[in-house]
Amino acid sequence: MIRVAIDAMGGDFGPGPIIAGVVEALKTAKFEAILVGDESIIRPLLPESVKSKVFIVHADDVISMHDHATDALKKKSSSIYVATELVRDGKADAVVSAGHSGATMSLATLRIGRIDGIARPAIATLMPTVIDGQKSLVLDVGANVDCKPEHLFQFGVMGLAYAKDIMGIKKVKIGILTNGEEDTKGNEVSKEAALMLKTLPEFIGNVEGNNIFDGSVHVIVCDGFVGNIVLKTSEGVADTIGKFMKAHIKKSAFASFGSVFMRKVFSSLKQQIDYAEYGGAPLLGINGAAIVSHGKSNSKAIKNAIFQAINFVESDVNKHIKASLETKN
Question: Can you say whether residue 148 is alpha, beta or left, with left for phi > 0 and alpha for psi between -120 and 50 degrees?
């Protein structure tokens, strides 16, 4: 049975939503849940019905959002450090945390280790497209703000494996995010990376920001500086559009008449853009499975993050990444 270590103390709202998400996940998936954190806080929050299905590993400390990512290595009794060590020691197959994302990435990279041939692990996130049921994968979205061409090439290899193994896309299209589709566009790093990516049959060339959402490409490669801006901007635009629509409905009598219909539209739109639907972002390139969840994750997000972790462990993503790099090298 797959064992998932969950950082119970991470997240903006404390252990409540995290434990609730674990309880929800246990209703529909068979896995061994390992909650890591202060046992005196965790145990009273567990319903009697799941206490026999959950293991608690006590951890005294917590990495706060004010701590530096590098501090995580010093706080060996923190919940995220202990959870990561469980994966490193083979006592868990995956780790899920809604806590300090920088600490999670640092510990996963340094303690669990990288896949042979990977220089920089990358955070990958799913984005909605206009094609029903199709998502695009953007990486990196925050782990590496400064990248070399070979790093971007490796992001493409990792994204390709994830798109095939997890997303189930048979004919993957990979693009590199630049300021224009022409080969002459981009900076020196993206141009050199594009030349390297051309060795992948799935590479279609330069893509622009709108292509993330129009369904024309499945994997979008960029550095973590650009990717994080894309991610945060997209979240802001989606939230703003929703507020605009609600404001106009309130002002318009005709729109108010159709509010029942509009509520269904809002519900569908929210489902497409809500991070809780995806649960979290996988950290690709480590020799294991780590899901980095949003700090504001609710129980639904944690549940889906656990499902992501299970799917990752059950797949051959890491094996395919390693094999692809060996072939290219």
Answer: beta
Give the residue-averaged pLDDT of 18-39. Answer: 95
Cα separation, 103 vs 109, in Å, equals 10
Please indicate, yes or no, whether residues 259 and 137 belong to a single structural domain of this protein: yes
Asked if 100 and 158 sit in the same domain, the reply is no
pLDDT of 243: 76
Please state, in angstroms and rounded to a whole number, the distance separating the CA atoms of residues 90 and 106: 19
124 and 107 within one domain:
no
Give this prediction's pTM: 0.89
Tell whether 271 and 299 lie within a shared domain: no
Q: Which amino acid is at 292?
A: V
Instruction: Identify the pLDDT of residue 241.
Output: 72
The secondary structure of residue 275, as a DSSP letter, is G
For 308, the token pair is 């992501």
Residue-range definition of the domain harbouring residue 250:
119-278
Count of domains forming the chain: 2
Q: Spell out a b/e string for 118-134, using b for 16 or more CB atoms within 10 Å of the CB, else e.
A: bebbbbbbbbbbeeeee
Evaluate whether residue 147 is within a structural domain.
Answer: yes
Q: pLDDT tens digits for 297-324?
A: 899 999 999 999 999 999 989 999 999 8
Instruction: Tell me if 288 sits within 8 A of 94, measured CB to CB.
Output: yes
Please give the residue that has the higher pLDDT: either 271 or 25.
25
In a domain, 234, yes or no: yes
Q: In 3-state terms, what secondary structure has residue 25?
A: helix
Distances (CA, A) of 74 to 58, 81, 111, 319: 17, 9, 12, 31
- Which is it for the CA torsion 252, 253, 254, 255, positive or negative? positive
Query: Containing H/E element for 206?
Result: strand 203-207
**78 in the same domain as 110:** yes
Asked whether residue 26 is assigned to any structural domain, the reply reads yes
Tell me the β-bridge partners of 281.
Answer: 292
Q: Give the CATH number, domain containing residue 41.
A: 3.40.718.10
Provide the mean pLDDT of the chain. Answer: 89
